[in-house]
Amino acid sequence: MLVKILKLIHAHKVSTISEIARVLNVDRSVIEHAIQTLLNGGYLAIDYQSVKSACPQPSISKFCALCPLKDSCNVYQTSAITFYQITEKGLALIKRSNE
């Protein structure tokens, strides 16, 4: 399932954890755990640059939870958005799985 998640993210076929869960027909909590496993394994990384660009005050903090505008910010209130990027290690895993 971890490779399937990486492939979905890499192909830009999904943009949220809920979408991944729907496509793979599993509970959202399973995907959340899988994402954490991919992060811990170095296959995914949090893209802090994208988090900064989503925040109206990126110079204040790179984490929405610390932003003083979080109470009035749609980004923070709707889902505390986290952006992920596939690492070189993740891309290599995708490539090996396609061979």
Account of the protein in words:
The protein has 99 residues and is mainly alpha-helical. The chain has two domains: 1-47 and 83-99, Winged helix-like DNA-binding domain superfamily/Winged helix DNA-binding domain (Arc Repressor Mutant, subunit A), CATH 1.10.10.10; 50-81, no CATH class. 55% of the residues lie in helices and 6% in strands. It has helices spanning 2-10, 17-24, 28-40, 48-54, 74-79, 88-98; strands at 44-46, 84-86. Helix 1 (2-10) packs across helix 6 and helix 2 (17-24) crosses helix 3. It starts with a helix and ends with a helix. The mean pLDDT is 78.
Topology:
Blueprint lengths: L1 H9 L6 H8 L3 H13 L3 E3 L1 H7 L19 H6 L4 E3 L1 H11 L1
Antiparallel strand pairs: 1-2
Helix pairs in contact: 1-6, 2-3
